[in-house]
Write a structure and sequence with these properties.
Elements (H helix, E strand, L loop, with lengths): L1 E3 L12 E5 L7 H17 L2 E8 L2 H6 L10 H10 L4 E6 L2 H4 L3 H10 L4 E6 L13 H11 L2 E4 L4 E2 L2 E2 L2 H9 L3 H8 L4 E7 L4 H5 L4 E5 L8 E9 L2 E10 L10 E6 L10 E11 L7 H19 L7
Parallel strand pairs: 1-4, 2-3, 2-5, 3-4, 5-6
Antiparallel strand pairs: 7-8, 9-10, 9-14, 10-13, 11-12, 11-14, 12-13
Helix pairs in contact: 5-6, 7-8
Length: 312
């Protein structure tokens, strides 16, 4: 997939595109439907399939620190979009000026003039531009003017409710990572480099990889059965998210004990795929009680991860 930050970078190579547009936070099953439809329509019509998204997320620009955490940062989002088979992704820098732009101007100059739009696929509730006037009705009118078609897809319903980034975010923040998987189409993950920690796990007999997390959306504190991915290899593990109350720590950390693994992975990139929450964080009376509970956690994690539907 080709990734560009300006439509001018690919304008000369385009003779017509089938486009979908959105924030695609999480690139969940609703987004997957949009991307698949865009690719199918492009192939059928001999067009280039294009996804247009924004970075940073518009809420981050408009709401600042009050914005909810992103499910996927840009690197991960682009990976997921690329897996859909879409040929080009345009990542436009989002600014307050862009938010205030009249939607008619954006359609005429960017979508038609810049991307040679021939067919547009949008979600059931999509709207953009000043006053969010860039909705299905307005786009249909603009399509008649400029000669492009507009297709609005129905929402994706899973377990009786619409799939949305908000719903997924709420699930992950509540620790319901198993229930979030059908909506995402994968287990929620966090990424980062393995950093040096207090090395308490090693002293207890259960060395952990301390993750310098880059992602914004971290599951609820507690112990989880996980898959730990290093160099593309998935290994079973147990992860703890919390502040290690037994030892009086105050900073939130993500630590993963990789089962049956003895390698050294300091400073290496790591991904932790959260499969199921085992228990909440607890303050133990001391190291011996903690060791006993860790052994129980590992046993439960092995059982969970052995299930056929527990693999990413």
């Amino acid at each position: 997939m080709i990734v560009v930050n300006r439509v001018e970078d690919i304008h000369e190579a385009l003779h017509g595109v089938c486009l979908t547009i959105g924030n695609f936070d999480g690139v969940h099953m609703g987004h997957a439907k949009l991307l698949q439809r865009t690719r199918e329509r492009a192939v059928a019509a001999g067009l280039v399939s294009v996804a247009l998204t924004f970075d940073p997320h518009p809420r981050r620009v408009l709401m600042g620190n009050a914005a909810p955490p992103a499910i996927t940062l840009l690197e991960h989002k682009l990976e997921c979009i690329g897996q859909s088979g879409v040929q080009v992704c345009v990542v436009l820098p989002f600014t307050r000026e862009l938010a205030a732009r009249e939607p008619e101007d954006f359609v005429g100059q960017v979508l038609v003039g810049g991307l040679c739009l021939k067919h547009l696929v949008i979600g059931y509730d999509y709207a953009f531009g000043k006053g969010r006037r860039g909705n299905f009705e307005m786009l249909s009118t603009m399509g008649q003017k400029y000669g492009f078609g507009v297709e609005r897809l129905d929402p994706v319903i899973i377990n009786g409710a619409v799939v949305s980034s908000t719903r997924i975010r709420d699930m992950v923040q509540a620790g319901n990572v198993w229930d979030a998987r059908p909506l995402l189409g994968r287990f929620h993950q966090v990424r980062g480099l393995v950093v040096h920690g207090q090395k308490r796990g090693r002293k207890l007999g259960f060395p952990t990889a301390n993750v310098g997390v880059r992602d914004e959306l971290v599951p609820l504190s507690g112990v989880y059965a996980v898959w730990v991915e290093v160099d593309g290899i998935l290994r079973p593990g147990v992860a703890n998210i919390g502040k290690n109350p037994t030892f009086g720590d105050f900073d939130l950390s993500v630590e993963a004990h990789i089962l049956d693994f003895k390698g050294k992975i300091y400073d290496q990139p790591i991904r932790v795929h959260f499969v199921q929450r085992i228990r909440s964080e607890k303050k133990f009376s001391g190291p011996e009680e903690l060791i006993t509970r860790i052994r129980e956690d590992i046993g439960l994690a092995r059982m969970i991860l052995a299930a056929p539907d527990a693999r990413p």
